[in-house]
Amino acid sequence: MKIYENYSLLKHNTFKLDVKTRWFVEYESEDDLRKLLKDEYFRSQPIQHIGQGSNLLFRSDFDGVIVHSAIKGIEKLEEDATGVRLKIGAAESWDSLVKHCVEKGWGGIENLSAIPGEVGASACQNIGAYGTEASDCIDEVHTCAIETGEKRIFTREECDYSYRRSFFKQSENNGLFYITHVVYRLSKHPEFKLDYGDLKSRLAGKTINLQTIREAIIAIRESKLPDPEKLGNAGSFFVNPYLCIAHYEGLKKHYPDIPHYPVNGEVVKTSAAWLIDRCGLKGKTVGGAAVYEKQPLVIVNRKNATGEDIAALAEEIRRAVYEKFKIELQTEVLSI
Ligand code: EPU
């Protein structure tokens, strides 16, 4: 177990904010974690468990303990003619896992190529892109109960997944379990999902296999989304909102091109990027924070932004979207 005092979080948040935490603790095994959970001083502090920090906004220094898992490894639990089951340490890089699976010919998560973050967060946030969600391939989530230190395995059903949501992300369950491993089931005969946006056109004339799909997804992402190594950001700042049909029909009269994706007979999903774009907010800045021009769902750290700059810009976006469309945007990024 590694413990640091007054530790910079610069390398642990993709907004690239140079904030500090009073304590930073990294555990390397489940035994380490159990030891930590029994520690009286630790338990008395404000605690936040993080992954790679690719979906986090630190508004200021953190006066408590930031906890990070260093449990890595990809273990093959089963393999047969149809596919494999892999148990992966929560701290394994998400994209390294996708790359590994693509190289082995195991399909299911190739559309989730190049998403920043770690495997533990993939199961908490149910990451999604280009018609695929992590939960499509999750079989089990292995956790440690924070109160007792006991191991608990969640089946996929118990994780209660839906769009960008899970049991673990619900506020009432926050702080109950730490994810130690995730079991993914991948297929040797996957059905490719090519219907989202311009994926099919990117692949036109090419042999379609896991590798070419991964390459196309990486190219699409690079053309639309900023690389956090070059321009600090946390991907989509907001989730796409759900609207009741009556609200949607009312808006459609004024804005015939408002995007809609059917959810069920009562609600539709619309596009937060479109709403923000229609408010004329592309390029809008607060201090060093800016709305990204190519994808307005993303807030970037253009020049030495503070956490408060980013939070204030997010608030302006929420206000503008509410005033124009009477839609309350919900944040995807967790503010601390
Ligand atoms: N749009 C605009 N103006 C723009 C850009 C987009 O109006 O400048 C509108 C268009 O109508 C477009 C629509 O937004 O059709 C959707 O855009 P896009 O396909 O880029 O997807 P998104 O709904 O904005 C979601 C995810 C992304 C993911 C993409 C692709 C959420 C919150 N975001 O974005 O995830 O990569 O789909 O599947 O669901 C992330 O979570 O960090 C992330 C980047």
List the helices and strands and how they pair.
Blueprint: E1 2-8, E2 20-27, H1 30-38, H2 40-44, E3 47-50, E4 56-57, E5 62-69, E6 74-79, E7 83-89, H3 94-104, H4 119-125, E8 128-129, E9 132-133, E10 138-145, E11 151-155, H5 156-159, E12 177-187, H6 199-202, H7 210-224, E13 232-236, E14 242-244, H8 245-254, E15 261-262, E16 267-269, H9 272-278, E17 285-286, E18 289-291, E19 298-301, H10 307-325, E20 334-335
What is the general shape? globular
Structural class: alpha+beta
Small-molecule binders: uridine-diphosphate-2(N-acetylglucosaminyl) butyric acid
Trace the largest sheet across and list its strands.
6-7-12-10-11
Question: Largest sheet at a glance?
Answer: 5 strands, antiparallel
Helix and strand sequence = EEHHEEEEEHHEEEEHEHHEEHEEHEEEHE
Distance between the termini: 24 Å
Mean pLDDT across the residues is 97
Q: What would CATH call the architecture of the largest domain?
A: 2-Layer Sandwich
| Number of distinct helices | 10
User: Would you count the extended β strands for me?
Assistant: 20
CATH class value of the largest domain: Alpha Beta
**Proportion of helical residues:** 25-40%
- Overall domain count: 3
- CATH fold type of the largest domain: Uridine Diphospho-n-acetylenolpyruvylglucosamine Reductase, domain 3
Poorly predicted regions are: none
- Rg calculated over all Cα atoms: 20 Å
DSSP strand content: 25-35%
What does this protein look like?
By secondary structure, the protein is α+β, with helices and mostly antiparallel strands. The chain is 27% helix and 28% strand. The chain has three domains: 68 residues, Uridine Diphospho-n-acetylenolpyruvylglucosamine Reductase, domain 2; 150 residues, Uridine Diphospho-n-acetylenolpyruvylglucosamine Reductase, domain 3 (2-Layer Sandwich); 109 residues, UDP-N-acetylenolpyruvoylglucosamine reductase, C-terminal domain (Uridine Diphospho-n-acetylenolpyruvylglucosamine Reductase, domain 1, Alpha-Beta Complex), CATH 3.90.78. The radius of gyration is 20 Å and the shape is globular. The mean pLDDT is 97. The structure holds uridine-diphosphate-2(N-acetylglucosaminyl) butyric acid (EPU). Uridine-diphosphate-2(N-acetylglucosaminyl) butyric acid (EPU) binds next to strand 13 and helix 9. The site of uridine-diphosphate-2(N-acetylglucosaminyl) butyric acid has 19 residues, from strand 13 and helix 9.
